[in-house]
């Protein structure tokens, strides 16, 4: 376990994860395996980790809670499960909104090149597109702020 902790201190989360996974596999059900699993979940979402993996962290925290229900860190793990689940759900919402914005942009570009004789209807459609774009842009910004706040909470709670 000491090698894994040294790798974590050095910021080498890849090697730390390999060491921790080895401990979990070789000593299942032991206290040291519980420590390794909890630390594996934590490093997956560490603010120092340049490639955080919220899905792996979620899986590891869920496994930790189910395998070690009497461990004193279970409440902390449950909080992490809640925060990560919120984050992942909000991220899906943001992705869906960004897809809609992209579709809007394509539609808007198509309107720009159309040569329509009925300019009044075209003007109404463009006005609606602008209204939709503004509403979507505002929603995207709101969701970005929610995601940033959730990431901050996940990282803060994961320490």
Characterization of this structure:
With 159 residues, the chain is mainly alpha-helical. It has two domains: 2-73, Serine Threonine Protein Phosphatase 5, Tetratricopeptide repeat; 75-157. Helices cover 82% and strands 0% of the residues. The chain contains six helices and no strands. The protein has helices at 2-10, 13-26, 31-44, 54-67, 74-113, 119-157. The protein is elongated and about 75 Å long. The mean pLDDT is 84.
Secondary structure blueprint with pairings:
Elements: H1 2-10, H2 13-26, H3 31-44, H4 54-67, H5 74-113, H6 119-157
What fraction of residues sit in β-strands? under 5%
Helical percentage: over 70%
By secondary-structure content and strand pairing, the structural class works out as mainly alpha
The N- to C-terminal Cα distance equals 18 Å
Number of strands: 0
Which word captures the global form?
elongated
Enumerate how many helices there are, as a single number: 6
Mean pLDDT: 84
Radius of gyration: 23 Å
Give the topology string: H per helix, E per strand: HHHHHH
Unreliable residue stretches: none
Q: How is the biggest beta sheet arranged?
A: none
**What is the number of domains?**
2
